[in-house]
Design goal:
mainly alpha
């Protein structure tokens, strides 16, 4: 089976639209977006800082509660997947021009 560029780009587009929907971005304007904008939106989602960790430690609660750790993990996976599919898209577009 040979490589199908159109099918690959369609799959990547579906995935990127899915992640845009999660971030509350209109999926129809993907051509107008940059990877930086998508990552900034993902990072701001459920963002917890070192100051938050210190506050928990000072209050005697110890480290982050499990719910916050879960949300941080989901945010990290979201960022990783956005980067992965954006990179895959750039590779596919480069293959189409070469």
């Amino acid at each position: 089976m040979s490589y199908n560029l159109e099918q690959d780009l369609d799959y990547i587009d579906i995935k990127l639209r899915y992640y845009q929907h999660i971030l509350g971005i209109d999926p129809d304007n993907i051509a107008d977006l940059s990877i930086d904008f998508l990552l900034e939106k993902a990072i701001s989602l459920a963002s917890f800082t070192a100051a938050d960790a210190r506050e928990y430690a000072i209050s005697g609660l110890g480290a982050y509660p499990p719910a916050i750790l879960f949300l941080r993990n989901i945010r990290i996976e979201l960022i990783t997947n956005i980067r992965r599919f954006w990179y895959m898209q750039q590779l596919a577009l480069g293959a189409s021009s070469g």
